[in-house]
Amino acid sequence: MARIPGSGIVRGMALTLTRFFQPKKTVMYPEVKPDIPPRNRGRLELVTDERGTLKCETCFQCAQACPIECIDMGGTDTKGRYAVHWGPAEQYAERREESAMRRSGRTVSDAAAAQESSVDLRPVEAALERVDYDPHHMLQILESVQGAYGYLPVDALKRISRATGAWYAMVYGTATFYKHLTFEPGRNRTIAVCRCANCLVAGAGRVINTLSFEFGTEFGQAIPWSNLRLEALSTHLPDAPSPLVVIDGEPQRELSSRNAESWAAALAGRYAA
Amino acid sequence: MTTPLTKPSLDDPRIAIPAASEWYEPAPTAQTERQAEFLNLRDGEMFVNMGPQHPSTHGVLRIVVKVNGEQVVDLDPVLGYLHRGVEKLCENADYHQAICYTDPLEYVASLFCEAAPVAAFEKLMDVEVPRRAQYIRVLTMELNRIASHTLFQGWMALDLGGITPILWSFIERDEIVDMLAALTGQKLLYNYYRIGGVNGDLNHEFMSRLGNWMSRAAAQIDSNLGLMNENEIFVRRTRGLGTLDAATALRMGVTGPNLRATGVPFDLRRDHPYLVYPELEFNVPTRDEGDSLARYMVRIDEIRESIRIIDQVLHEMPDGPVMAKLPRLIRPRPGRAFGAVEGPRGAYGVYAISDGTDQPFRMRIHDPSFVHLQLVGPLTRGNLIADTMAVMASLDPVMGGVDK
Amino acid sequence: MVWSRMTPGGRALAVLLPLLSVGGAVLTALLVVAGPFIGATIGANLPIVRFLAASVITFLITVPVAFLLIYMEMKIIALMNLRIGPDRIGPGGAVMSVVHGLKVLKKEDFTPPSVDVPVFTLAPVVVYLASFMTVMVIPFAPDLTSVGLEFGLLYFFAIGGLGVVGLMMAGWSSFNKYSLLGGIRAAAQSISYEIPLTLSVVGIIILTGTLSLPKIVEAQSGSLLDWFIFRQPLAAIIFFIAITAEANRTPFDNTEADQEIVAGFATEYSGMRFGFFFFAEYVNVFIVSALFSAVFLGGSNAPISLPFSPEIVVDLSGLGLLLPIAAGIAPLLGTLAIGLPIYAISARIKAWQALLAGFLIFGALSTAAIGFWAWAMLPPVADLVWFLLKTFTLIFIFVWMRATLPRARIDQLMGFAWKWLLPASLLNLFVTAAAVLLTA
Q1: How many B-C residue pairs are in contact by the CB < 8 A criterion?
Q2: What are the tens digits of pLDDT across the range C328-349?
Q3: CATH for A58-101+120-185?
Q4: In the CATH scheme, what architecture does the domain A189-272 have?
Q5: Is the residue at C431 inside a domain?
Q6: Which member of B93, B226, B235 has the closest CB to residue A15?
Q7: Interface pTM (ipTM) of the complex?
Q8: What are the helix and strand counts (H, E) for chain A?
Q9: C79 within some domain
Q10: pLDDT tens string B197-213
């Protein structure tokens, strides 16, 4: 270069000095908000129609389609009983604290898991054994657990989440999604069959066989896909015919020794529907 | 529902504070011959660890430098701090979702990362993109190239210690980014290209901003460059530094401005034309030196060429639809396709295999930054610590694409 | 209890008032008793007392100077970057650097494990001490020098070189490779540039025949062409480049090149220890600028003399007791006199706004009047103003360079010092000596 050494530096210095006096480009942010372009997709919003009603039908499709799981939906069901949500559970307290501790690489005892469970968790372990702790068989696990307890205890759900590695929210979401899974004990309907000698002679054995075949469950257990439970009646009710089937304490009078099988099949069909 | 957990505290006896002997990491054991050579310290040599948090690393690159005094003896880039498994994620998403996964690969110029998979998917679908959409793609891609290159010259100056150019570059880049935000809705990850077209036609905000900017862009960018281009300190630090010859560059698979700085006039836009590039007039700027200064100058020449292309595109923009007629759910016939575009850092390629479902069966992403990063070692060996930064800045890798 | 119902301010008053009254009484009594003795002691040891007072004042001066320089750096670089820069705290963000200083004070002073604790602790002290000790020989005005040393220039170079020891200590003791590299870079750079720095002023020493800074300044009195920047331009250029390197300023800030070695020697420091390094850096910038303006820019000599010499004689002693009364009432009267017309102009102006405006305008006017009087009648004030004007122009140039230039590489930096600056300064020295011999 035939130029005088240092001329580039001097020219740069002149340039910065002219910029020193030029108007500045800073946007005074909290006072001056930047323009949001009309096509901006930066914010999720629930859209209302012209009458002000929410257009969202809570179909969860957006949450399922969102590729990076940034949409999650939550709320209570129509009767205001259960919290439901679909989406990453990381945002919820139940997972965040545990995983934050684990992410920091520390070995800490898990306070949630360390608590004494209020129910006996052995059936849960058995149900988990059966599917080899695979979270993909969540429905099957939950049905077995419901079969064992008659309902889904919260501690059992936590144990499932912990053992399978599925998010608690996913477990909970699955449990709330299917109608036949329930969280409350004692609300089960029981189909009780009397097994006294009279009834057995009159055809209770055939009723039991038909019912357990139709419902696909062992006698004395809950029916997994419904909130029904097959039981044996402890004592024969007074003034009741034989064979005796009691549904929720109500003795069924249409049943006789002749139509035992067809009646049981009809009952199962009614509940299955 | 939730059980209240006790808050973690440093006084908690269960949280172990490491003993003094655990402060230092044990020396790693060599797995390969190359690693054994690297880990072997001769007299007066020491390792200096740079990154993943270091003021000059682009993104989260970690470089272990073996130095003898100020001289770099050997160098080992450690990758993977930004790995997300984008290819696998794309294979688990449908074709539309896959585009938005590739978007953040190169966050500085993300339109190119969309263009490559879109090109591959369009080949799979065998769909004709409307001409207006093609012009819009060329227009937005060239704008994004300018945004990326202006930012590059600021970063280059910053890595050499100048603090002003980066802010001026960001002012320039911000104008383009705001423009693209008016068109696409987003400022960084546009997600604008769709299979068979683009997401929306040109709108008034975009066009008025573009017209405003075009009227003074060339003069403004030239004026900004006047600070560094002739500065003796800058020129003396970059000339002859990290010289790459054409044969090595071709052997290493280098593309883009880094290849053109060695004198090979290879540009996908001209040599393997796509979209409407064959109808446009532009030069492929090259330099013969192959050093850091040449890489810098090639990029600056490319800014001028891009402004020229934008001007032509605006003059020849046809009318018509911007989206081809396609079903909502895309299920290409089984087959395989490779789509590539010339990005600001080199050739982006996406190789996609369809098995007839709505998700790509296999998707392989080729990112130029990854190829260029392996040059840092050979180019820096024997230079000084400060030159590591100059060489790396001139290669301009973006870690989002490197780690995928 | 009354105490529990008091506000914090009330509590402070309740504690302070009795203490102050008792303390005042005791102090008065002591002064009455021991006054003559203290006076006699001061009179007998005047040089020592003067030295102590001067060093305390110098030490205290460095802090606001550093604050001012930090603010200047933030603001000027911001404006050149087309930013606004600090603008929230104080007018134009002027108090920003003070708040930064307070922040640094209250941060945790963390000593990393496995550092060499005594050396690590001492390093910032050494660095700061070296900076502030050099301030003591700066000739702000003919009679405004803390210590009028006969060998001031030599002292300056000697003590200025001591700062490098502190940087080396910090770099070595930090147990960090970046710090080590930074410390060694600082030593190498500083030693290399000491030589052209010292050699470039030897020509001036030959011309003036003295090492005393006030006398060098005195030698430049007279017209503008008597300044050494015009009589020794090559020396001025070499000296300027060398002091840039000595003060670790861009483009020679390799010791703390954040793109290469993070923060250099200061990497492991935090809290006020880091603050000491930071302050010392800016005090260094101030003193090298002051030295340049003293040696080359004529120091406190005015570049132009006023065409008229105003004679404003105000004899305040004639007022007697009225003086304090006037001093007390004048601001009130002035405020009212300016505020009332403003209040009367428009109904939209509220009374407090008018009063505030009146107070501010009166303050500005009276400050200007007093300032002009001091300028005209007190020569040291005018000299000090000229000196600081030159110094801050130089500081502006340093900041301007930082905003413009990239960093030179360490080998280029050293090569420049040994291959170019050293021969040039030797050439300058020989030419000057030859000229002096020939003309004598």
Answers
A1: 85
A2: 777 778 788 887 877 777 777 7
A3: 1.10.10.1590
A4: 3-Layer(aba) Sandwich (3.40)
A5: yes
A6: B226
A7: 0.82
A8: 11, 6
A9: no
A10: 888 888 888 888 888 88
